[in-house]
Each structure stands twice: as structure tokens, then as C-alpha cells.
Design goal:
The protein has one domain: Alpha-Beta Plaits (2-Layer Sandwich), CATH 3.30.70.330. The protein is 19% helix and 37% strand. The chain has helices at 3-6, 14-19, 35-46; strands at residues 7-10, 24-29, 50-58, 62-65, 68-71, 75-82, 89-92, 98-101. A four-stranded antiparallel beta sheet has the order 1-2-6-3. The chain has a two-stranded antiparallel ribbon with strand order 4-5. Strands 7-8 form a two-stranded antiparallel sheet. A hairpin with a 5-residue loop joins strand 7 (89-92) and strand 8 (98-101). The protein is elongated and about 75 Å long. The relative contact order is 0.21.
Length: 115
């Protein structure tokens, strides 16, 4: 699946706005997407480092219009925790030399609220 097919829309509620201060962003995602696919899609689309992904399957609500009764569709919600303080990683390379790998990660998702 493409990253654009996995991430459907941001979920903007009072609770999700409070969680953004801690680096947690909430998205409506494809029902068949796994946590690894969600993490890769968020990293590719928003250029951030994902630390953790929590998923919740949300069941649809019962709705009624006059005599007719129905149900809204089920959907999947993902709470993605990003690294708010990305640092360079160092590791031992060939010959025991320390090598610094620096990737340019953002510390927040500016596109989340439509900014």
C-alpha cells in the first residue's frame, strides 16, 4: 500500500490536541494497515522519527433517521508518538572508528492542523 492510502485523515479532538504537546498525533488509518506500515507511512509523509504506534479499532455507531435504522462504518485509529528531540546517532564503523549518522528529522508535524 502507498503511504497516502494508509493515512486517511487526522483526528482533531480536544484530547488529541492535548496529546500533541507530548508528541502524540492521532490519525484515521486504513483498516488493513499494520503498525509497521503506519509508522513507515508517517515517517515518509511527514519526515519525522516515529517511536511508537498504538492502534484502536473503533466500531461504528447506530444511527436512526425516522423509521429506518442503520450503522456507521467501522474504522481504525492510530496514535503515533514521534521523537520530539531527534539527535544524531553514532556507531562503530570499520576499524573501530566512530561514525555519526545524521538524518534530518522534524520535531513536529506542521501539516496536522492544516497550517
Amino acid at each position: 500500500m502507498l503511504p497516502e492510502e494508509i493515512i486517511i485523515a487526522p483526528v482533531v479532538t480536544e484530547k488529541s490536541n492535548d496529546a500533541m504537546q507530548e508528541g502524540k498525533y492521532t490519525f484515521k488509518v486504513n483498516k488493513n494497515a499494520t503498525k509497521v506500515e503506519i509508522a513507515n507511512a508517517v515517517e515518509k509523509l511527514f519526515e519525522v522519527k516515529v517511536l511508537k504506534v498504538n492502534t484502536i479499532s473503533v466500531s461504528g455507531k447506530k444511527k436512526r433517521v425516522g423509521y429506518h435504522q442503520g450503522k456507521t462504518s467501522d474504522w481504525k485509529k492510530a496514535i503515533v508518538t514521534i521523537d520530539t528531540n531527534p539527535t544524531d546517532t553514532t556507531y562503530l564503523g570499520k576499524g573501530g572508528k566512530t561514525v555519526k549518522a545524521s538524518k534530518k528529522y522534524k520535531d513536529s508535524i506542521e501539516e496536522f492542523m492544516g497550517a
